[in-house]
């Protein structure tokens, strides 16, 4: 097993990707939360 750990801060594109993916996760979870609440009512 080779556990590679970056010693430098993440490159900009990696940070952008992480930001975008977290935003997508947030939006989708909010969307499903709203859908479930509407279904429950």
Structural account:
The chain is built from one helix and no strands. It is mainly α and 41 residues long. The chain has one domain. 0% of the residues are buried. The mean pLDDT is 81.
Number of domains: 1
SSE order in H/E notation?
A: H
Radius of gyration, taken over Cα atoms and rounded to an integer in Å? 17 Å
Poorly predicted sequence stretches spanning 5 or more consecutive residues: none
Structural class: mainly alpha
Distance between the termini: 50 Å
Descriptive terms for the model:
single chain, 71% helix
Write a concise synopsis of the structure shown.
This protein is mainly α and 41 residues long.
Protein topology:
Elements: H1 12-40
